[in-house]
Structures are given as C-alpha cells and as structure tokens.
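We close this part of the discussion by returning to an individual protein. The sequence in question and its structure tokens are set out directly beneath this paragraph:
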Amino acid sequence: MTIIDETQKQTRAAMDAKVILYKTLRTEYKPFEAKRRLLGNFDMFLSDDRIRRLLSSHIGKHFYERKKEPLSLNLQSKKLALDIQGTTTTSISKKGCYCMAYVAHSGMAADELAENIDSAVSTIVTKLRVRKDR
C-alpha cells in the first residue's frame, strides 16, 4: 500500500501496490474503524517523502504501536526498487533510552555489513543532532 500525493500517480504502474491519495486518506479514512481496517489489510506502508511529515496526524497512533508507520521514500527516484531494498528504518521511543535500526540482512558480506553500520550510525547521529537543536 502506498500513500502519495496526486503528482505520483505513475508510481502505481511501477509498483504492484494499492495507491491511496493523500486527499482520500484525509477524507475516507478519517473514522477510527476505517484506519483499523486499513492497518489490517496491508503488511507495509510507503509514503512519498514530501508528504511524510503530514501523515502522522491522519493515520493515528495504532500504526506506530504496531510498528507499521509509513516508510518514507523518494517516489520520483529513477532507482526506486534499489531505494526500497536499501532503506533502513529507525524507531526512537519516547519511553526511555531505546532505539532500533535494521541495517543489514543475513545474505550480506562482512564488508557490506560494516559499510551499512557505518552509514547508519552517521545518519542517526545527524538526525539526533537535528532533534537536539530544536
């Protein structure tokens, strides 16, 4: 399932996914039960990185509690499939010192794993510095 804005309709043809426009999400999926059905019908949610910050107020807390928050991607990318495979997720909790990031899979070589860990650590440090400065 992909949540995008109107300018990304061509993404539907490139991906085997159901596309829900942001406007539709705001209107048709406003009731609590509609959000719960949406959450139960799909395993993964993607969103255009340009509208990702707008989604949290519309999708509700259940997406975050079940760890199904939308993955933010640049849907205009020429290498979207590679971006999806190389995407790392990070979850930072407001309840203590806990965070988790997926940085590799079992099929990766040791040098690829080391490179991913290094990249993930520098990205997380950058993100934490931004939050600290606010």
The radius of gyration is 16 Å. Strands lie at 2-4, 19-21, 46-48, 71-73, 90-92, 99-101.
